[in-house]
Amino acid sequence: MRLILSGVIALSLAAVAAADPPVYRVLAQDKGHVALVGKDGKVEWEVECKYNSHDIQLLPNGNVLLHTGPATVTEMTPDKKVVWRYEAKPAGDNKGRVEVHAFQRLADGTTMVAESGNRRIVEVDAAGKIVRQVSLSVKRPDAHRDTRLVRKLPTGNYLVCQEGDGLVREYDPAGKTVWEYALELGGKKEAPGHGPESYGTSVFGAVRLANGNTVIAGGNNHRVLEVDRAGRVVWSLDQKELPGITLAWVTTLHALPNGNLIVGNCHAGPDQPQLFEVTRDKKVVWTFRNRQVFGNDLAAAQVLDIPGVIR
Fold first, then answer.
1. Is the pLDDT of residue 31 over 80?
2. Are 186 and 169 a contacting pair, CB within 8 Å?
3. Side-chain half-sphere of 268: how many Cα atoms within 13 Å?
4. Where are the domains of the chain?
5. End-to-end Cα distance, the chain
6. Which of 43, 72, 101, 300 is a plausible cystine mate for 56, CB 3.0–4.6 Å?
7. CATH number belonging to the domain at 54-175, selected among 3.40.50.261, 2.130.10.10, 3.30.460.40, 2.40.170.20
8. What is the pLDDT of residue 19?
């Protein structure tokens, strides 16, 4: 009997532990700084960064890739020393400005940078030399809206969010489009802006899952979509589908190994979470809302300490 009771108690404790909500550390930019917020909500590290960032990356060596200016990517150590910097300049037929909205440190040590205005992706080495470039096909050229988030895939292709064109494209290393998905208005009237009252197809982020499907953060489309290779929507999350949460400018995406998604919800208002984790049966299991450290413009965030996450 004692053994049976012990087993029941152990199982009960295990069930309680399994039901505990996740708690994460968050690295993000807003309110004029980049801050790493611990699980207790307190700032563990911060540095001034007045530029409203659209991407950020904590590197395996502890350094951070920061978006420190309209066209500038900076690598900084934990003791705030700048060890690498790249500033995009007008190139080709572009005589106007250049903006950077996405970057990624690659496994070979180079850094991928998406250059809006130049309409290209470059890979830059430690010396600042461009070692590879890929031209992008853009229907509505705009230095501010050519791209949002871009990720190089394990295949060597690039998954590119083209905000101004309202679509996600996959390019091969030669710049050929091998897949695309265009966001739709769904019969609704377009409204400018980024908040909950706006509406459009200004896509922000996308990640490629191991099964070949693509999860898309719709920006001011106020939705998260999972689409297959044929372009069929196989899962979606609409603006007011979650109790107490209204989607605004949907930005950051993290695809977790358990199938859950962490979603960035920028410009949503003071009562809304800036990030949340949702299961595929649409249950919210974690929210992040820290208005002391960040405000209503938190677009770039990395949720830390999740092995196997895709972002």
1. yes
2. no
3. 30
4. 54-175, 183-311
5. 49
6. 300
7. 2.130.10.10
8. 57
